[in-house]
What does this fold into?
Amino acid sequence: MHAKISSATSLPQKMGQFLLSVIPGTLVCAAITLVAMGAQHIEELTFAHPYVEALVLAILIGIIIRSLWQPDAKWKPGINFCAKFLLEVAVMLLGASISFGAIMASGPALLAGIVFAVILALLASYMIGRMLGLSQHISILIACGNSICGNSAIAAVAPVIGASSDDIASSIAFTAVLGVVIVLGLPLAFPLLHLNETQYGTLAGLSVYAVPQVLAATIPIGLVATQVGTLVKLVRVLMLGPVVVVLSLLRSKITDDQGNLPKKPGLLQLVPWFIIGFLILAAVRSLGFVPDSALKPLTVTAGVLTILSMAALGLGVDVRVIGKLGGRVTTAVTGSLIVLLAISLLLIHLLDIH
It folds into this structure.
């Protein structure tokens, strides 16, 4: 009888201890998140849209703080909690923003072309990274970030392949910089390449990393470019689920920096719980069970949790490691972006998009 009571009370006690252990580190990440979001808000008021998003600012602020202060055992549980669990929750919630119906309405030829372009860009980007001597982990992260949806793809793929904080931070930092460059420079392609709005929207949707960046790159061109770019971008985002599932199945073939293979994954590692949640929410949204009124709160929540997790990742980064990888990572990301742009223009030509 007494043993049962002790067993029954142990779970709440463990939960309480866990919550107390994660509070300090979580508060630090929350403070960084507030600063990053505040800075993005100032950008929006000044320039109408952010050139550097809060997600990127959070990881940069975290890296700066980490270079000045090394968190001890008191802070690490909360930082790890934000970097892993909250990140997985954020990825799952992104599924609610996906509608299969809108994607299918765009036509089979364009859908097949986008899927082909993403797969080709993934393979090419990965090969570029490996040819430059980068590890499998960071090569995969760069390939997914460039080919699918930038930071969100890197954040989703990282826990599946067991990437380190340094790999994640390096991939996000350099991908983010080029993300800003392409948003600023891509509109020049509209007059230089003599594109119409539909063609430009397709190019932006295929090559720009994040959905907000697609809006920033297309709104100056016109409404049609914005609508087409957003639709194409959503198809790319939808590729995240299948890619993560494939990487989960191939996980035993992905070595770490020392050439060691990870342990054989269990069922939830083959198909992580947050990816199952992502696909379920996407299906529920497509069936109309997620009301439009709930979409914005879910999207905002996912965004805030992602920023929190990026702040945590920044706090776990050793700047010296990034310094060693800097030149090769920059070359890999730049090369991958050039390949992605070439594939996008080729697809527009082959499908004769007008």
